Amino acid sequence: MEKTKIMLAGFLLVLLVVPQISATPLFKFKKFSLRNFECKKYDLNQDGKVDYSDLIFMRLEIARFDQNSDRQVDINDYKIISLNRGASPAESNSDVNRDGRIDNSDLIEFRRTIPRYDFVKSSKGFNFEKILVDREDFNFLRERISKCN
Questions:
Q1: With b meaning 16 or more CB within 10 Å and e meaning fewer, what string describes 110-128?
Q2: Measuring CA to CA, which residue among 133, 26, 20, 121 is closest to residue 76?
Q3: Domain range for 75
Q4: What percent of the chain shows pLDDT beyond 90?
Q5: Residues 33, 115, 68, CA angle at the centre, nearest 5°?
Q6: CB-based contacts of 55: which residues, under 8 Å, 6+ apart?
Q7: Phi and psi dihedrals of 136, rounded to 5?
Q8: Does the predicted TM-score (pTM) go above 0.85?
Q9: Is residue 50 domain-resident?
Q10: Cα–Cα distance between 36 and 81 in angstroms, integer?
C-alpha cells in the first residue's frame, strides 16, 4: 500500500512538472520532405541550395574533364586521359585531379565525378560506356533551380 502511494505521488509530480518542461523540445528535427531529398543531388557545389552557382560549378567541371573541346564529356574524353597516362601535365590537360601526374588516379577521378552530372541519361539506366554530359544536362539543372527553391 505504501509503495502504491509513493508511486501515485511520483506520477502526480510528473504530471505537474513535465508540462512546463516539455514546452522546450529535447530534440529538434529538420523538416523532411521528398522534394528536399531529391533536390540535394542537384546542389553540386554543396552550399546547401540549388542555384546558379551550381550551373557555374557544372560548367567548370565539364571544362576540366572535356579533353577534346567538344563542350561535352563522354567516353572519348575518358579514352584520351587513358592514352595520356605517363605524359607530362604540361603537354596535355589530362591531369584532371591536379596532382602533377597523369595516371590511373585521373581515370578514377573521371569515373567518380562525371556520373554525378549525367542527369538526363542516367535516369534511363546508367552505362559508363554511354555516359554523356552535355547541354541537355545543363538545361535540366537550370530547370531544377526553380523547382528546388
A1: beebbeebbbbbbeeeeee
A2: 133
A3: 35-147
A4: 52
A5: 145
A6: 138, 141, 142, 145
A7: -60, -40
A8: no
A9: yes
A10: 36
Q: Is residue 130 part of a domain?
A: yes
**In the chain, what's the furthest Cα-to-Cα distance?**
91
Whether 24 is covered by a domain: the verdict is no
Distance spanning both ends of the chain, measured CA to CA? 62
Assigned domain for 137 exists = yes
Among candidates 115, 141, 133, which has minimal Cα distance to 51?
141
Place of cell 573541346: 69
Structural domain total, the chain: 1
**Running DSSP on this structure, what letter comes out for residue 46?**
-
Residue type, 115: P
Q: Per residue in 77-125, pLDDT tens?
A: 999 999 999 999 888 899 999 999 999 999 999 999 998 888 887 655 5
Model confidence band, residue 147 (pLDDT cutoffs 50, 70, 90): confident
